[in-house]
Write the structure tokens for this entry.
Amino acid sequence: MKTTLVRLILLLGLLPVLGITGAFAAEAKNAPGFDDPILRDLQTEMARSKTQLRLENMSAPYFIDYRVVDIDDWEADAALGGLRSETHSRIRFLLVRVRLGDYKLDSSSAHGEGAIELVPLDNDEHAFRFQVWSATDKAYKQAVEALTDKQARLKQLTIDHPVDDFAHTEAVQSLRPLVELKVEREPWLKMLRDASALYTKDPKVQLVDAALSFKAVNRYYLNSEGTLVRDGEQVYRLTINANTQAEDGMRLERSAAFTANSLQSLPKAAEFEDRAATLLATLKQLREAPVADEDYHGPVLLSADSAATVFSVLIGENLLGNKPELGQNARVRGQFASSYKTRVLPEFLTVVDDPSLDSLQGTALLGHYEVDDEGVGAQRVSLVEKGMLVNYLLGRQPIRDFPSSNGHGRSSLPLSWPAPAVGNLVVNSSDALAPGELKKKLIAICKDRGLEYGYYAETMGASQAPRLLYRVWAQDGHEELVRGALFGDLDQRSMRSNIVAAGNDAYVDNEVQPVPHSVVAPSILFDDLEVKRQTSNKDKLPEYPAPETARK
Amino acid sequence: MAKELQRAKGELGKLTPAPYFISYTVYDEQVSFALGMNGSLITSTTGRKRMGDVIMRVGAPALDNAHGENRPSAISTETLPFDDDADAIAHALWRLTFSEYRKASTAFLNVQTKFQVKAKEDDLSADFSKETAQSHTDYKEVALAPEQKEMETFVRRFSAAFAKYPYIYSSGVMVTGEKSLQRFVSSEGGRVVTPDTMVRVVIQAETRAEDGMELIRVETLQADSMNKFPAAAEIDAKVEQMAKDLKALREAPVAEPYDGPALLSGRASGVFFHEVLGHRLEGQRQRGDEEGQTFTKKLNQAVLPEFLSVTDDPTLRTLNGTRLAGWYEYDDEGVPAARVEVIKDGILRNFLMSRMPIAGFDHSNGHGRSQAGFMPVGRQGNLIVSSTHTVKDSELRQKLLDEVKKQGKPYGLYFEDIQGGFTLTQRSAPQAWEVLPVMVWRLYADGRPDELVRGVNIVGTPLAAMNRILVTGDTASVFNGVCGAESGSVAVSAAAPAILFSEIEVQKRAHSNERLPILPPPGFEHEAKTSAQVGGQQ
């Protein structure tokens, strides 16, 4: 986000309780956000719902929130030098949550609940408020049923550690400027075409595609406790994928992605094309590379890039404070359910999540934000200290021993209820080595154990398969690319027990799914990991060669 | 396309088993969409894409990989680059072709094995008919694609009226514009290029009755271009009528189970014939174990009263001045569209045929239709019901009342409109129609005023009802729509006169019991607060 943005955070008590609509209109004109038609209309409906929404013999809501997500989205994709799809869409969603009961026990469930409507793009008061009214009515009726249902189920269950259903928090008011999607289409489309046209350089490449997804997202949030937030974010993403088959039929794939929060931070056309050319060159090397040996147990060095992927999947996803299903007594869902105050990483590693960081060593961090999607100010959270798990990432859903949100409740695009999510997850080592030292250490372990070579993973693909994996020969340190390998036991146990050193480097992995976030990690060295050969089926090679191309 | 097809034919022809037929169809599609509610634009999107289908038949026409349940093995589909870059398209088709060959050749081996080990099938027809390859490459644009701004203005303009009515809980106007160009080449030498443009409007409004029953009115419009739609005043009137209908429906009594005379309007009859009769006349439904085969053995026998005839004629562009949605010049297998007289004077004479033969019918009659990515099968185009035993439309009401008196019933039913459960929340166009009556009136024998009822469901065997037709009206009404089936969504029309049945059985429809909205909608805060009174018109 730009630093020039005006930021305004006022801590307020609840808005004055307003009895009737007429009176509200008069006072609301002075309320913050009233010059924004969306916030104004949300406030008008909020006032009505807060004071009047109630079925006879049923309780009134104790909490209501409105979230409007306005997405301006341009996506295009080119394959083999030609544009394959291009869509532009603009849409505004409204998500309404209504909670009945109280903070201790309410109508909510682990799945999130509420109603969703589309709302107008035109700032038309009647049409807009109509959708808010309709969604609120549905959400209230659902909540009435959900509360009754939950009370009935609770009677059948024994709860060992009662935890509140909803965290108290201070009201926040934060209004930031709106963002717009302003792009000149043609140069970007040309860039996709040109990069994907590189397939003509290598007749054995079967597909090259390049895609872009540019989004400007404005979010509006209002709740019945007086929180009012408006924020805009831009997410620009470029991707390239290429695939081929080796002579033995093994499918080989490479991809690269660039993610940024400003157009200026994306690569220029020449840089993008270079990256595509590099991908194709590595695909060719992979095609010619030997297949990994069937079984290997020994040291493995992960580059900072690979380590970021591994930390994200094995550690990051398990730091989320998701409350288990009703009646289950675990602290959280996931692998770290019973790991609180135990060691999950070696003592020299620490992990924090700090959404307040907007860049690191000149790279913008995508996980930067000020206020989360539940209107709670983002907090820096120290998660793993000296290898020990001490905290979780939390939204307003409390878990055992953690009654408050730490500002990590976020909702993914286009539609989801807020849930704990990673912001900027940063892994640091108290005993960091230069990457060259790590390689020396890898070789030393090999020699110690009489191994001819160790492994170095430069990039990771999906599901434990390294994309670029090298044998590092103990004898002279030279690196040799191999293909078709898979890590056998890269899991929470090996993260806890087998990491012996970490680098002083840091790779920033900016990702957009499920929410924009960053994972920053150093290279790491495992003293012992299993590397095995992929057993997936090999397809036949094409029955006949690719057509010749006119352009060379 | 043709060049890459030749190369594929040559290269794959050297293999065993070899394909004996390959076709490429490339669809260029430009799709725009706009949705408005209460006078305001909700969303507006536009996109272009190009789809490529490869159809491959391995073996021989008598028995190939597309036999029986293996039919999907004959097609592979993918998005292609839409820039006119010959290299890129050839490369993409190459990829698609060799992957389709793998699918088709594996399926063919399965088909061969099964054919040997399983009992003999009833219908021993070949799997693929022989047809003359067509060449039709000059084409004329049907119309320009609608302008996005124009669509946005339209949905704002016509969705606004619903905002006046507090009892309408959900409403919207949706416009979908599609401009397409379909290019077909086959290894038999066929080359057919067909353009199409279609703009479709769906206007929808919903309310609920006091007891929670959901009530919905839908109007659809279809034309080649925006300027072919009826005048604004006419659409306004339709919208107002929908609002009026909904008000009347929510106040109407719930229908009681009933068995007796009924009159279907032309529009309702068209839908009824499309669903009940039309789908059963599609050729492929006459072979295969899973099909009901209602009509398979009825060839040359009476299936309707002798005063009724049914044709399907995709070559007709308009009927009584109304554009027919099921118009096309060539079907999706490159066969020229043809008028088919399916039922003549009540006697079943023919079926709607694709290139999948059935016993007694070796050839296609130009009804092999599909959406991109699906294997074509026999589908309806413009289904037209005609009658020689008619009375003036204005006299049908009296005819119904006469029949009611004759049977000693207190009232007869008039089905003014029948439609399916459309919803605007779905992105794609509505996929299917149920025979779901919406506007149904009781016409009393004793001269009481007509009474609208709600929650009617038609039961019993619809085919049995076909033989209880007494007489028809004298003018056909057209229903244009999109029909979904195993070969995807295709545009169709159904036209029929109003029809009087001696007996139709109805029962109450199950419905939700959700409460009415608790608060009045915005803009009506100061009106009566109890939900029972919300509904007053301004």
